[in-house]
Amino acid sequence: MPDAGELVFDGEAVGTAAGIAVNALRRQVQMVFQDSYSSLNPRMPVRDSVAFGPFIQGHRKAEARGIARDILGRVGLDADLFGPRYPHELSGGQKQRVNIARALATAPRMVILDEPVSALDKSVEAQVLNLLRALKRDLNLTYVFISHDLNVVRYISDRVLVMYLGRVVELGPVETIFEEPLHPYTAALLASRPSMDPEQRIEEPPITGDPPNPIEPPSGCRFRTRCPFAEPVCENAAPALAVQNGEDAHLAACHMRDPASGHSRAGPA
């Protein structure tokens, strides 16, 4: 159970009398997991797996199967051919399409995708990514796309949130972050990408040291033990992520971005 903070969905606080109930949130948020095989019931045919959500939400079995048939077609699977099959009869890409269909069957407004293509071959990965982009556009969906693959993040995202050791370190539009990162950790991540140009070799690691123990993180800025710009202020105080609204807002939790922090690289206030 959470012991602090609040959850806000589309401007409404979750779990409060004046906001949105948790059960209502579950109807509007679905998830696609990384492991496409273990996410499916091996004893349940594909059509029943996809129809299960609508059935639980009150649709009759025939209606739920009709929804499953329609959504399987949307993700590129013939319902007559793949509907009666079991998960072990599908390839990895087909299983992940089934998982996407199952998530969309309840008509959610937001879909959380946890490394949905990391276990797929590159050719299949490209097909699934193109499918996700098309579904996002056609169904007016919002994605929370979790990935360590920077190229995939750039391809699928509108805005990017970078985390280090459980804390948000940077937030902004995808192209702005990839072209002009503000936080040293983000810059190190982007510098670690392999280049297709043989002349652009990485001679030195863009980031050194091991990540700290997440149970006992460092004081102040959690990245300071690996940051080449760390100063005493980074140890004494945790940098704040400023609150700024708007799609173009580009924020970083770094003392170098705060003129009042006292960091030598922060510049004048």
Description:
With 269 residues, the chain is of the alpha/beta class. It has a domain of 106 residues. It is 35% helix and 12% strand. The chain has 10 helices and 8 strands. A 3-stranded parallel β-sheet has the order 3-4-5. Strand 1 and strand 2 form a beta hairpin. The chain is globular, with a radius of gyration of 22 Å. The model has no long low-confidence stretch (mean pLDDT 91).
Keywords:
single chain; 269 residues; alpha/beta; three-stranded antiparallel sheet; 35% helix; globular
List the helices and strands and how they pair.
Layout lengths: L7 E2 L2 E2 L8 H7 E4 L13 H11 L4 H14 L4 H4 L9 H13 L5 E5 L7 H18 L2 E5 L3 H7 L2 E6 L2 E7 H6 L4 H8 L40 H5 L14 E2 L17
Parallel strand pairs: 3-4, 4-5
Antiparallel strand pairs: 1-2, 6-7, 7-8
Helix pairs in contact: 2-3, 2-5, 3-5
Low-pLDDT runs? none
Report the end-to-end length measured between terminal Cα atoms: 41 Å
Radius of gyration: 22 Å
In this structure, how is the largest beta sheet organized? Answer: 3 strands, parallel
Q: What is the 3D form?
A: globular
Helix fraction bin: 25-40%
Mean of residue pLDDT values: 91
Number of helices: 10
Class by helix and strand content? Answer: alpha/beta
Please list the strands of the largest sheet in the order they lie side by side. Answer: 3-4-5
How much of the sequence is in beta strands?
5-15%
Secondary-structure element pattern, one letter each: EEHEHHHHEHEHEEHHHE
Number of strands: 8
Can I get a quick summary?
This protein has helices at 22-28, 46-56, 61-74, 79-82, 92-104, 122-139, 150-156, 174-179, 184-191, 232-236, and strands at residues 8-9, 12-13, 29-32, 110-114, 142-146, 159-164, 167-173, 251-252. With 269 residues, it is α/β, with parallel strands linked by helices.
